[in-house]
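Sample pair:
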Amino acid sequence: MRVIGEYMRRSLPYAAGVFLLAAILAPAAVPAQQSAHVTGDYDGEIGTKQATLHLRDRFGPLTATIDHLDLAAPWMFTTSGLRVDGNTLSFTVPYVQATFLGTISADGQRVTGTWTQKGNSLPATFTRRNFSPAATSSAADGIWLGVLQVTAQVTTRIQVVLRSDASSREYCIVDDLDLYTMDMECAHTAVSGNEVSFDIPTGGAHWSGTISADGKTMSGNLSYFVEDGGTRRLTQTPLTLTRQAALTPEKERKAATFDSALPPVMAADLERVLADDLTGALKDGEMAPSTGAGVSIGVYSHGVSRIFTFGAAKPDSIFEIGSITKTFTGLLLAQMAAQGKVTLEEPVRELLPAGTVTKPAGPEITLLDLASQRSGLPPMPENISVVNLDNPYADYHSADLFSYLGKHGVANPNRAPSNFDSLGFGLLSVALANHADMSYGRLIEDEITGPLGMGDTVLTLSPAQQTRLLPGHDQFHGPAKPWDSDALAGAIGLRSTAGDMLKFLIANLHPETIKTDPGSPTGATLPAAIRHSLQSQGELTSGMGLALGWLYQKETGNYWHNGATAAYSSYAFFNPTGDYAAVVLLNTSPGVNGSFVENLGRHISQRLAGKPALSLNH
């Protein structure tokens, strides 16, 4: 079952082009006394697209969200770095890598400025939605709080704030207090006698109910659609709301704690150390028996490798690796360049079917731009029409991608970096496969997984491999289905085992040790291609470098990448200076508290380095 918080995360991507698994970022606070003159709702446009800016101080500090409530494609983003300095307002939207810098008019009625996203700038103007409260409040006006049953084990508190204006129009906002989804604006809010209803566009839900005779409760149902194997059915869950005297803040987030440092742990000792470090998680946390979770870990240090598991996993269990697929696609480009089949600076347009997209007047997207996340493309194509939420990318094919490119174009004047570029890697995989006249899956096998002996790293599982695919789970530990992909396979499509992935990481650490058929042209070029794929391609953010698919963290010296789908999550890293590497594969998607598998991966990296390690027991 998907509830308000979960629905919001699944609705967000339709606007941003990213389907799932973006963390809901807590906005930086601005003291209320410094910003009271700007508090309110502002309707406006970013370029030609409508958007509403909400500046609120309901819990003291000023926060900002920005949304668009078109029911066909609703979206909502939180902000960070919010600042009000005199008449200057600024914030960032990390999820879509955007910044806003604007000026507040003297009367506080308008905010005019510039929206900058991936190096492109658009004018943005917002006009205050002046609110004149009704002389007499409606029966529904006020603060309401209820508890929604998410699963048999999980509940969340839902807060609704209703108010009416002088023209008797009703407004409301909804907070999902325990799943950290705040300030969702309602649409179609209606109060008629004791009947109340409203839509939650960014939550994909509708609530309707009745006010009690004493005005203290509203009894009703939350309605939403559930996808089940391609069938879309309407589901209702009871949600009774009780009138409150004051606002309730969201659930307090637990601060990170660290376990004491140990001397650098060797690969042969890591399983024993982790068995102790994971005691709480295995007993009643993210890895408890009731969750069905299973984690498979591969670790290497100084010539020694180990594969071990906890929970439901086995050493040969297969998982989806999500966006770690991008590191294979980046290496594939380096391989084909090493063989002289393509050049890195070659325009992607030239590898696509003739007539797919016209040549732009200025700089255009190259293969290197795609692999180094500087294509200027949005995170995902905007023409994805999700038919089945359980398998969202299965029906997005090359023809759809070509149609999108034909309209969007391939101009790239700014080469601004992007931290989520599934469209770029999907396009790169399609272009390379088209140029080689074979499928992406076959190309990966011929150029990378075959030479490295990675027989369990594939797009499509054989019947025997299918039996080893560990059943996946959503963030609430309910059953979730694996994803299929076509045009976006090069971004998210591969499945693998810990053993196979460890072979890949060791090859990246020590390309000189790769043993392949001397007569194989792919084997001959693979060591050089790996070295080339790890060369710096600039910075994503301060302290975070870019290679071809890999990210490079300067503080730790780790090359790393994470991945997630609706039912699995993954984390992989290798450290050339320390001569160690690890991969962590989990059959559970990230949740509102972040990615457990990423925390585990960071913990392992810290143990191998002999540093204090992020605690895993809460």
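Residues 146 and 241 are 4 Å apart (CA to CA).
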